[in-house]
Amino acid sequence: MKDKDRLGASRLINKLGKRYLKWTAYGLILLIASIAQSLPRFLPEIGSARPVLIIPIAVFIAMFEGPVGGASAGVAGGILWDLFSDRLFGFNALLLLIICCACGLMSQLLIRNNLISSMLMAAAALFTHGIIDWFIYDLMLENDQPLRVLLWCTLPGFVYSLAIAPLLYLLIYHAARRLRNIE
Amino acid sequence: MKNFIKSAAFKALAAVSLFLIGIMIYAASTGGVATIPETIAGAIVAPLQSLGAAVSDGFSDFLGIFTDSNVLQQENQKLRKEIDQLRKNQVELDELRRMNEYYRQYLELKEQNPDYKFADCRVISVDTNNKYGNFTINVGLLSGVKKNQPVITPEGLVGVVYEVGMNFANVRTILDPATQVPAYVSRVGSGGVTGGSLSLAKEGKLRLNYLPRNNGVAEGDYVVTSGKGEVYPRHLLIGTVKEVNSESDGLTMYAVIEPFANIRDLTNVFVITEFSE
Q1: Nearest-neighbour CA in chain B from A110: distance (Å)
Q2: Do B256 and B270 share a domain, yes or no?
Q3: Which of A50, A180, B165, B214 would disulfide-bridge B34, Cβ 3.0–4.6 Å?
Q4: B167, B138 in Cβ contact below 8 A?
Q5: B58 domain residue, yes or no
Q6: Cα B76 off chain centre by
Q7: Is residue B39 in a domain?
Q8: Is the complex ipTM more than 0.90?
Q9: B positions 116-175 inside 8 Å of A (CB)
Q10: Are B127 and B113 found together in one domain?
């Protein structure tokens, strides 16, 4: 009996260790993405558009891990983004929590997780975040040529981020599959 | 879906959401000092961001060896230094000429003022929204940097610190409409306040607003800080006048300024942590 208990305990510790490994790996991916997207001379600018890497990555994690995992990834990614952004600290974290939770729920209940559905979810997430951010900060608060901001900055950034999203999906896909095999 | 809403996980997510809203409210009330969670996270992430920026800059410079001619690059740097010195000399002459007319004595604008204290820093991050080139530097409260301290390069003023953590600070550039710098045109003495706009920021330019109608400002004049408001020291170079136009109300005029510093391509900057007037 005692041997069985020991075996059960060690299995539980093993399982927990592998789960921590999985989330540590996701955390590192988000950390690298947040650093990469804000480095001054790493990703080329097209006009004044810079790609956002955190939103697609958090959405893809939500597609694989469900609403709770997705929300956690959204909060972590949002906090890392808020550090070096001129938005109020917590703004992106809160938005991404809601968006990624919704994406995770939809992937569990409504849609299948494949490249096309993930791209659609990423596009919806990028668009939603971009519009809310534009509405609050450029239309309501700053009000300096908000239509131009939308056409010159927000929409080009959306297109640029979406163009890179397939590569990010492949990264998360392989990471999730490998981590699930380990788990 | 109903099961998820009733679950403990959903309640935990709702609690996290309320916590984030609380942080946002607190962040809005701190007046530019980073919140505790932001400070802790920044203390961990800022060194990694600095490392990433150093690697990225090194790689870009390495590629530059192959894409640009080395000889032309060195000659270009030498000529830029000469032009910077000539510009500073021109501002000093204009300043002396103006003050002689009004029988006052002036301090000369020096390249390195002995009463200034600087914090040398590196640009480690640019805002992804990036409409106005706002960026983050790798120094903060631990290096004596505080909110509302001016940020410069050897070419001229680039912005002001608006949020500061322990080892990082966020800088708003002079292209941003929220950054308003009291300034004047050195040749004629006409004063105003700088401000940005989106359309000008795309061209890397800004405005000098509230110029009087008979201001005498012309293209090519130099714009410098006036020192009013005690945020920016006097005689910091800002840029050159490109054009002068009337405001829509017809009462005042404004000048379009091209900054001396290349706001969109900064790597190393200085924060003036102390100066005496």
Answers
A1: 10
A2: no
A3: B165
A4: yes
A5: no
A6: 24
A7: no
A8: no
A9: 123-131, 134-136, 162-163, 168, 170, 172
A10: yes
